[in-house]
């Protein structure tokens, strides 16, 4: 997928991946972990608050029971009911009326001080005889109320939630029997305290706002009927006993209440009656003597607002880190790709045979890239020297080839001249033989023939001397050619050794790259160990977080207990608050530590991938060095072939030289014979007596001359063939030299 991408693009992609992937993973982990922790903390707070509310309601109704007993036992109440009984429960009697204005007025003030709004007294028949604010008319028959019936039986009795037509609201009441202790505990009537829905809602709603603006608390029965008002919304005003709701909380509590499970409690995240996601707690509690359900909940959006902020912060941080990583990857990619691109371009030109060997890579760093540039420049230096030497050698070879071609042409011309001279000598020998025959028949022409023979012998001797000198010159030229070929053979051998040295240098470069790759792998292993250690620190920080969470929870419980203790727990509340602050500070510091470790881990990951990217580029350099070694091997083979051609050419010239030597010896033999013939001719001019014998000798000499000329002709033909072979070899040498020059001219040195 990434094979066709440049190194710079790969580094940008890796930088983004190394930034975004850890950011997304860590951000998602932190988001989920934080969400779970906050959910757990909120649910724990809801559980603690539910327990606190349950205890508060239990304490309130226990206090209500005690205060009802206290009020029923007050002398003013007791005396007033006793006076009413004495008047036959006549509500219009003068004594009762005076008691209402005086004694019971003081009772009303006491009840107001205790914080109750409604307090009333009934007769033993259950009819109201007095109430604090007159909200319940006198004479109202309440005998059918369960709490009145229970009190008339002599027991303190709580009512269930009910709607009072008298006070036009839902409420709960406690009835307390009033006895005449002076007359065998005769029942005088019932004293009752009424707690309205508003009073209960105030108790339930107190402190709920600490959970959030959307926090709410309310009571429901097994059928889902609201028993108290809600803080906000459509059920915040007079929904008690008139409105019913549904949902997970109601369903769960209905099951527990129907089973009379007073120990039931639980927390969860769910959708409330409106369908809004909330975190809530449900608890079965007794209000008076009725088992009902207490629901405390807060909207998830508000409870987990800090998690949403963390999510936004993580996304923003990821975008910023991605931008920074992109810029860093671009800068790093340019610093890595630029020298590599230059090296690849130069190697590409060299591989195509069009390289500029005068250029060098700039060495700006001391890392692996700088080391690669340094060794690449050394390789180009050596290659430049090698190409220069090859250029010089090819020039020498071209000059030698031209000289050899000219020499072979001259040798061919000389051979032609020798051939023509030999033909002339052969013709002269034939003429001489004919003259000898004529001399045998005609002695009269002897003097003339002898004179002609002498002249022919003289011309023959002169021609042979010319042939001998030409052969000596050709022999000298061939000696120079053979020496030049031996010199070029030595140069070709030097080129072969230079190519071998180049291959050895490339092998050394490859070994150095292998060492660098091993060093990179060792560094990557060390950095990975550092990454594992940072993960261990993560685990330790998580343990500290858990301890801080538990400390915070304990501090919250301590604060609740201190609040319940009132004045005596104030000092302990201060200590609990300090412990809570210390726990929050511990959480904050561990978060900072986690952030630092995250950045260190990200840097470690980036370092590991940078080392891996460098290893990949070193592998590419290793491959390029292998290609260069192959090119040097081709040069080495070409040099060996050139050396072989030169050796063959030297061998051919050696054979040609031997042929020339044989021709020279033959000419010398002919010259000696011609000299003897000339002496014989001189002797023939001195005496005619030996004419016939001399003519016979001359005929014999002519025959020998003809045979020698035939041998000379054969030698000349052999020399011509050798000369042609030299010419062909010279042309091959010229073509090889021209090809080598063409290769060298492609390089700029």
UniProtKB/TrEMBL annotation:
It is a multi-pass membrane protein. Residues 435-671 form the Methyl-accepting transducer domain. It comes from the Bacteria. PROSITE patterns: CHEMOTAXIS_TRANSDUC_2, HAMP. SUPFAM superfamilies: Methyl-accepting chemotaxis protein (MCP) signaling domain (SSF58104), Sensory domain-like (SSF103190). The chain crosses the membrane at residues 12-31. InterPro entries: dCache_1 (IPR033479), HAMP_dom (IPR003660), MCPsignal_dom (IPR004089), Sensor-like_sf (IPR029151). It is found in: Cell membrane. SMART domains: HAMP, MA. Pfam families: dCache_1, HAMP, MCPsignal. GO terms for biological process: chemotaxis; signal transduction. Residues 334-388 form the HAMP domain. Keywords: Cell membrane, Chemotaxis, Membrane, Transducer, Transmembrane, Transmembrane helix. One of its GO terms (cellular component) is plasma membrane. Belongs to the methyl-accepting chemotaxis (MCP) protein family. This is Methyl-accepting chemotaxis protein. It comes from Candidatus Fermentithermobacillus carboniphilus.
């Amino acid at each position: 997928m990434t094979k066709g991408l440049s190194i710079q693009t790969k580094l940008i992609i890796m930088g983004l991946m190394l930034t975004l992937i850890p950011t997304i993973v860590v951000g998602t982990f932190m988001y989920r972990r934080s969400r779970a922790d906050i959910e757990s903390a909120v649910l724990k707070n809801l559980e603690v608050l539910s327990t606190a509310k349950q205890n508060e309601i239990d304490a309130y109704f226990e206090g209500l029971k005690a205060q009802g007993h206290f009020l029923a036992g007050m002398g003013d109440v007791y005396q007033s009911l006793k006076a009413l009984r004495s008047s036959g429960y006549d509500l219009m009697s003068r004594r009762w009326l005076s008691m209402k204005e005086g004694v019971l007025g003081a009772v009303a003030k006491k009840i107001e001080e205790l914080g109750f709004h409604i307090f009333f007294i009934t007769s033993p028949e259950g009819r109201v005889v007095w109430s604090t604010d007159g909200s319940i008319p006198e004479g109202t028959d309440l005998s059918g109320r369960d709490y009145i019936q229970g009190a008339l039986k002599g027991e303190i009795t709580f009512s269930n939630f009910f709607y009072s037509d008298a006070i036009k609201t839902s409420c709960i009441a406690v009835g307390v029997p009033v006895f005449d202790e002076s007359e065998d505990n005769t029942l005088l009537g019932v004293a009752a305290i009424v707690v309205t829905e508003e009073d209960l809602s105030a108790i339930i709603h107190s402190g709920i706002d600490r959970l959030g603006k959307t926090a709410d608390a309310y009571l429901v029965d097994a059928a889902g009927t609201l028993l108290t008002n809600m803080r906000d919304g459509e059920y915040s005003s007079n929904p008690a006993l008139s409105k019913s709701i549904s949902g997970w909380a109601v369903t769960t509590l209905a099951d527990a209440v129907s089973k009379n499970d007073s120990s039931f409690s639980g927390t969860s995240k769910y959708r409330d009656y409106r369908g809004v996601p909330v975190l809530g707690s449900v608890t079965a509690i007794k209000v008076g003597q009725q088992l009902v359900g207490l629901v405390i909940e807060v909207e998830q959006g508000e409870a987990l607002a800090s998690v949403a902020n963390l999510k936004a912060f993580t996304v923003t941080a990821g975008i910023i880190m991605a931008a920074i990583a992109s810029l860093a990857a671009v800068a790093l990619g340019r610093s890595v790709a630029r020298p590599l691109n230059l090296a690849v371009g130069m190697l590409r030109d060299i591989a195509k045979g069009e390289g500029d060997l005068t250029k060098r890579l700039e060495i700006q760093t001391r890392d692996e890239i700088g080391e690669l540039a340094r060794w690449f420049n050394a390789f180009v230096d050596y290659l430049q020297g090698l190409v220069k030497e090859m250029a010089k050698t090819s020039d020498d070879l071209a000059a030698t080839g031209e000289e050899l071609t000219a020499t072979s042409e001259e040798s061919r011309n000389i051979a032609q001249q020798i051939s023509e001279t030999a033909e002339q000598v052969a013709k002269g020998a034939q003429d001489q033989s004919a003259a000898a025959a004529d001399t045998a028949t005609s002695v009269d022409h002897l003097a003339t023939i002898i004179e002609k023979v002498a002249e022919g012998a003289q011309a023959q001797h002169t021609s042979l001397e010319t042939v001998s000198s030409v052969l000596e010159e050709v022999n000298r030229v061939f000696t120079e050619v053979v020496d030049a070929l031996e010199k070029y053979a030595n140069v070709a051998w030097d080129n072969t050794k230079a190519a071998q040295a180049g291959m050895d240098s490339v092998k050394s470069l490859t070994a150095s790259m292998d060492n660098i790759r091993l060093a990179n792998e060792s560094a990557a292993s060390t950095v990975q160990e550092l990454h594992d250690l940072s993960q261990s620190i993560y685990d330790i920080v998580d343990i500290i977080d858990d301890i801080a969470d538990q400390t915070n929870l304990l501090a919250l419980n301590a604060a609740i207990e201190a609040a319940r203790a009132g004045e005596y727990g104030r000092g302990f509340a201060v200590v609990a608050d300090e412990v809570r602050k210390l726990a929050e500070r511990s959480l904050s510091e561990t978060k900072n530590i986690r952030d630092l470790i995250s950045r260190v881990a990200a840097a470690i990951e980036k370092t590991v991938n940078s080392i891996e990217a460098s290893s990949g580029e070193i592998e590419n350099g290793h491959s390029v060095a292998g290609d260069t070694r192959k090119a040097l091997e081709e040069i080495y083979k070409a040099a060996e072939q050139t050396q072989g051609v030169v050796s063959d050419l030297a061998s051919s010239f050696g054979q040609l030289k031997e042929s020339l030597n044989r021709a020279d010896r033959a000419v010398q033999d002919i010259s000696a014979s011609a000299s003897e013939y000339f002496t014989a001719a001189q002797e023939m001019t001195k005496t005619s007596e030996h004419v016939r014998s001399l003519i016979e000798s001359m005929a014999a000499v002519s025959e020998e001359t003809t045979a020698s000329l035939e041998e000379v002709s054969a030698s000349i033909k052999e020399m011509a063939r050798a000369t042609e072979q030299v010419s062909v070899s010279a042309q091959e040498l010229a073509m090889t030299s021209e090809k080598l020059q063409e290769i060298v001219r492609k390089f700029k040195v």
